[in-house]
Each structure stands twice: as C-alpha cells, then as structure tokens.
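Tutorial handout. Part one gives the primary structure; part two gives the three-dimensional structure as tokens.
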Amino acid sequence: MDISVVIPVYNEADGLPSLIALLRDALDPLPQTAEIIFVDDGSADASASILEDFARADPRLHVIRLRRNYGQTAAMMAGFQHATGDVIIPMDADGQNDPHDIPRLLEKLAEGFDVVSGWRRDREDKALSRVLPSRIANGLISYVMGVPLHDYGCTMKAYRREVIEDVRLYGEMHRFIPIYAAWEGARVTELPVSHHPRRFGTSKYGLGRILRVLLDLFTLFFIDRALDRPMQFFGKIGVGAFFLSVLVFLWALGLRFFAHTSLIQTPLPLLAATIGLSGVLFLLLGVLAELTTRTYFEARGKAPYKIRSVTRHADAAPASTDARRW
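Part two.
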C-alpha cells in the first residue's frame, strides 16, 4: 500500500458520511494505492456501526474498535501500528481538516522531505479559547525543542513510514510526533492547509489542555536533553545547587563578621544546608538515572544512534550484523 490515512474517531457519527465522501473524492484521482483506517476510540454514539457499514462496502476502508476511550494519542498509535502504507497521513474526524489537502502533502513529501506538518494558518476556531493559547503553545514548543513549526496541534500531517515506525506514543504526545521524527534524523517542513468550521458534534478540547501540553513539553525536554546522558542533566543541577549553597553560607558568614548578625538570627545557614542537600540528592538521582538508562538500552538491544546509510568499497568485507553498542 502506498498511502494510509489514519483517522481517530470519538462520537462523530453525524459527520462521518460526509467525511468519507470527501475522502473518496480526494483519493480516487491519485495514482497511488490508498487505505483509510478509522480508529473508533470507544465512541458512545453510532460512530462504530456507521463506520462498519461503510467498511463492508469499501475494501479500502478499515475500522479498528478500541474497547474503551483511551484518548487521541492511543487511538492514533493503534492506527499507525495497523497501517501498511509507505506514507501515513493522520487527520481529524470532525470535518475541520480537508481531505483535498492530501495530494498537496504528498507533493511536498516528493520534494525530499520526510515529514510535512499541516499549518492551519486561517483557523476557524474561537480566538480566545482556541487560537490564542495554541499560538502561545506552538511558539513555546518551537523555542524549547528547536523544531520551528507554526501549528503542532494540527493533526493533518504526512509522514514517511520509516521515520515513525519506531515511535511509541504515550499520554498526550501525538502533537509532538514531528519532534520524535526530527530526533530520528527526518527532514521536517510545514504546509498551509485548509481549516473548516466544525459542522457536527462538539470539540473534545478546552483550556484544560494547556497544562497537559506544558507537562508533556517538560517530559520531551528531559528526554531530548537527558535520555542517553541523565548524569549530565541532573549533575549540572546538583553541582549548581552545591555552589549556590556555598554562596549562601558565605553570605551568612559575611553578615556574621561584618554586620555582627548571629547565625542563629538569620535563616541563611538553614537555607544553605537545604540547597546543598538538594544538590547531593540531584547527584545521586543522576547516578540512578544513569544506571536505569543503560539498563534500558541494553535490555532493548537499542543503540543510542540511527544510521542513515553505510558506503564502502566494493571489495571491502561486509560489516558484522552484530554492531557494537557503546
């Protein structure tokens, strides 16, 4: 299969027939073979039965039903794992993404990119509750993670299979897939896509997602900076805390000898001891994280690097398949 379109679904029964019609209109003219994978994430309405009726009539359409509502990330992961296409294109089921953007995403991939991220430049959402928080979050994510995209929250993207087949998603991490792909050495770009007002159902997201995004961003920041070298991450914090405790204690001594302030009369000695102890704890945490990380890589047989290609002379002996891991 050339293309797999993956669509998580949760209580979108009213809009599914029109979405499927638009998908057919967009995919039929393409020269590539395509499949459409709907993942029903424990819908409480008639979404699953509607999808199954369409699947019986269209061999390109597949329906995966989850036992309960696991969330968009888990549903998307299930779709990725069942997809067989060389290019995987996720999109929303609420009708706001336009399937007619799929050919444009494929054209951009053909320019040599591995990931094409949709950019809802003209969003049809509420400005204060949806658009403004999204812009702030996207700017923060781009700055912290170093992958400059305008719209991480847009589900509609196109991925080459090889850059995401090893990606495992947890929590609410689906919006950060381009970052995972960039870690694998993928070339990432973005493309403005259409965005339509929601015609059916209600949005599943609100302002409460802001805290989840921030927590996920902190997790990604740690993984990026410290997954294969946690001692460097925690050690810097520990050493910094230790030197800060020394400075605080010297401040207390300065007050003692120059301002005649007793050490009992100021909280600075206690503060110095607390900061110093925190530094020691961070160092010990770094040691434990280092042991855990090495166990993780060794247990999975996973090297902390990815090889794009190997070039050698035709007369050279082939390399051993059992690569040495550092």
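Part three, for discussion. The chain is about 45% helix and 10% strand. The radius of gyration is 25 Å.
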